[in-house]
């Protein structure tokens, strides 16, 4: 999701709800540079010399549409305030993001005198994220870009009135790809930046798979009746996430260093069977809807990888942003990619017999990839190579999709994308 677009550890969105389908990623660069996250999400590191100033609390007299407000009501979050000290070490500076399963806080590490991001999970949530990230860090195959995976700096547990909360400390990040594009009014990344980010996303996913994993302003809070809140499980203030990002069209190549994040629902298919996809609806692989009795695999990740690469290269998502249920998603997939496999077509209860050529692949490419570029467009040779890769990734049958290694070695990746990623990092990334 880069669908899914992008997200947790160090990012401005706390959850992408991906089993790596719904890939999130962020860029490692100084504050005056960008990061692209991803939904699946990119994000940039916060430079230590540029801490964010906080706005004064603003009173509210109604229930805000903030995840944190809902979570407080349900008793699943831990009350955290700006200026709190976590684990007797991390001084809370601001909020970076929030989601259904966690909240991300920007903090100052008092021992190392640097800024960090702390992902605080909801009460009593069982998460293997820190374990998975530590295992990925041990993977000896560093030529497959292990440096593109979020690194755990510390992990600890907090005990609050709602239960126990796991905390993961990482380098801080800034925003998601979707957020960066939205802020630029749907103008895409500069072509070289897009190529560099897409290449790094592909490399990070290949590294992930090689290691055996599927990535599967403060406001005072008041009660609706206006009476003061006295429960110890509710903080005095609710903080909306601070925007630390940058519009996509302003990101420069030296800033385009990616970090793959959010392994909260990642899993190892050889050790765990997963039938349910947690990715955003628009990025959900077709097998999760039409063949949900079969376990999800690395191929499910590949579907999301294709959608995220498309979003990096274009000015919007591959799938329509106005889809409200699974049937509409499947219909949009058919519009773009053609007929479903026969057995799936028969299962699809709301199937139709017309409208299959409404938004074919080539038209989507022209409108969302080519038209969104302010400067150069992809030439004919690169366009063919890019679409060939996308067609190999977005196949309905999971077993027919390219593997991450095959995507890594595709013509478009090797000839157009990888050289730009290596230029961004100023070193060779693959043998």
From TrEMBL:
GO terms for cellular component: nucleus. Coiled coil: none annotated. Residues 90-413 form the Protein kinase domain. This is Protein kinase domain-containing protein. InterPro entries: CLK_kinases (IPR051175), Kinase-like_dom_sf (IPR011009), Prot_kinase_dom (IPR000719), Protein_kinase_ATP_BS (IPR017441). Keywords: ATP-binding, Kinase, Nucleotide-binding, Serine/threonine-protein kinase, Transferase. ATP binds at residue 119. It comes from the Eukaryota. GO terms for biological process: regulation of RNA splicing. The keyword Isomerase does not apply. It comes from Fusarium fujikuroi. The keyword Kinase applies. GO terms for molecular function: ATP binding; protein serine/threonine kinase activity. It holds the Pfam family Pkinase.
